[in-house]
Each structure stands twice: as structure tokens, then as C-alpha cells.
Amino acid sequence: MLIKIKRGWEISENRVTPENVFANRRQFMQGALGGAALLGVGIGGAAFAAEGGDPMADLYPGKANPAFGALERPLTPEKLSSTYNNFYEFASHKQISESAQALKTRPWEIRIDGLVRNPQTLDIDRLIRQMPLEERVYRHRCVERWSMVVPWTGFPLAGILKLADPEPEARYVRMETFQNPDIASGQQQFWYPWPYIEGVTVEEAQNDLAFLVTGAYGKPLAKQFGAPLRLALPWKYGFKSIKSIVRFTLTDARPVSFWEQTNAEEYGFWANVNPQVDHPRWSQAVEQPLGTDSTVPSVLFNGYADQVAGLYKNMNGQNIYM
Questions:
Q1: Quick one: which of 17, 85, 171, 284 is 20 to 30 A from 2 by CA?
Q2: Distance between CA atoms of 36 and 32, rounded to whole angstroms?
Q3: What is the distance between the alpha carbons of residues 188 and 208, in angstroms, rounded to a whole number?
Q4: What is the DSSP letter of 255?
């Protein structure tokens, strides 16, 4: 008798979209994208039309990876997730979707440097086209206790490490976002340590869940999500998922992140989700999915413990949860 052990992130079969419906949906999206290209207009309205259409639009929707599901929760409607966004470069409130359209995502360069054998600077479109894009459905848990489920398109962060060819002494990946206070008014707030910096260990970066996002909801990434390249670390609180990345630096020194510099008492380097470890100012036991008035129990590592818990063995004395 064959016994299948269900992995923590898999959705049950009765919630999986039937193959014929899934295929028809993708054929429709591809046809819509092609027709929009003929008209000179991209799918997604202002998100693409503002710059004459996204040059990567023909790559979407990406091929869905069925190995990544949503832990029994429905997708968050795009209308909600794209209009309720943390992007402090543009403001400290959530309604930044319009102001974020000021971000110019072309030209855009990605610098890879530090303790690497192959330092380089890549045009974003060259980088995207050389990577195997796929769609993954991930849960996203904000430290503020709201959550969402989003279909991201992108490629593993490990792909950047492969390009970089790290030196043996490299232990961390430091990431940096753009800095342009002329268009990003939030960066005019001098009390924040701009630019936004985040970091992970090389081992975390090599974990298959660590994902660099170039698209969402079957099309190129909207600016308010952190276009043209952002990070998704679904087992960590959302502030670790840096947006609009311009630089990856391999280093032997642990980076001090944006929120650590701002308030290290409340926002640590590791920031792994744990419902039993409260934020200093509120409980983390429950979360509220966007678009609902109710809360649901939070889960250790946001439901991805099977894939990542081993990264943190033998780390006595380190606060890996906040």
C-alpha cells in the first residue's frame, strides 16, 4: 500500500485547479498578453502603459510550479494586495500604489560584487531572460499581523549565487534597494537609514524557498510590489523581503538591516515567523488575511518549517524569531 505523506506547504487535491481549467486560464493570459502587445498596451493598465509596456511581458504568465501551494488558503485578490502595500521609500502608510508609479524601472541595473569570483553588473532584462522563470504560490506574513497569499513569478535566489560564484569565506548576502529621493518622497525622511538594506545567510539564500520575484498574478511585477526585482522569503516576516533591488554583495560580515538600524529592539536580523514569540508591542499568535474581518492562527515558520527549520539548528543564544 502506498502511503503519501503530505508536506506542509502542499494544498489538498480537492483545492487544486483542474488541469484543463488551469491550461485554459494560461492560454487566455498568453493570448491576452499577445493581443495587448499588438495594440501597444500591456495587461494591467497603468502598471504597464505608463512606460509604454513592460519589455518582459512576453514571459508571463510563468509556468506554474505545482510543488508550491498555499496551505489551504485562497489567493488574495490582486485588487487588495496591490493597493495595500508597505513601501517606505514612498510613504509610511499603506496607500502608496499610485505614488509608486513614479518609480522608473528602465533602465535598471543589478550589481553583484563582494567576496565573489565573478563580479558583474547586469541589465535587469538580460538577467530576467537568462533565468528560468516559474510561478509559485506563497504565503506572506507581515510582522504587523496581516497576511496574504500571492502567485509570484520569478527564480530562486540561488541563481544569483551561481552567477556570482562566491568565495569560500562568503557567509552572507547583503541586498540593497534603489535610492532616489527625487521620486521616492519617503527617502526624504532623514531619520530613516536609507537605502533599504537586508541580508540573509548564504545557506538561507541557497534554500529553494528563497525566491527573487519579477512578476505577480501572471504578469510583470507592479511597481508597488517592488518592481522590477524583489525578494520573497515566505518563512520570515515580510520586512525581510526587500523590494526594488539594485545590488547583491557577498560578505563575511553579517549585514545590519534597515529595520535593525531603525529599531533593533523590535526588528532583528533573523525575523522567522513564530506565533509563540511576540513582538514587543503585540502578540504574533494570530494574523488577519487581507480582505477579511477575522483572524486565523499563525504557524511556525509561516507553515514552511519542513523546508527551513534545519537552517537554524545549533543556534543557541541567538534570537532567530524576532
A1: 17
A2: 6
A3: 36
A4: -
Q: Residue 167 is part of a domain; what is its CATH number?
A: 3.90.420.10
97's CB contacts (< 8 A; 6+ apart) are 82, 83, 85, 222, 224
Mean pLDDT in runs of 10 for the chain (322 residues)?
Answer: 38 37 42 37 38 86 90 91 98 97 98 98 98 97 98 98 98 98 97 98 98 98 98 98 98 98 96 97 97 96 97 91 89
Round to whole Å and give the CA distance between 117 and 165.
5
Is the residue at 86 inside a domain?
yes
- Phi and psi (nearest 5°) for 61? -70, 145
Euclidean distance between CA atoms 244 and 44, whole angstroms: 19
Contact 180, 85 (CB under 8 A): no
Task: Return the DSSP state at 208.
Answer: T
317 in a structural domain: no
Q: Into how many domains does the chain fold? A: 1
Domain of 168, in residue numbers: 13-312
- Report the C-alpha dihedral over residues 23, 25, 28, 29, rounded to 10 degrees: -110
* pTM for this entry: 0.85
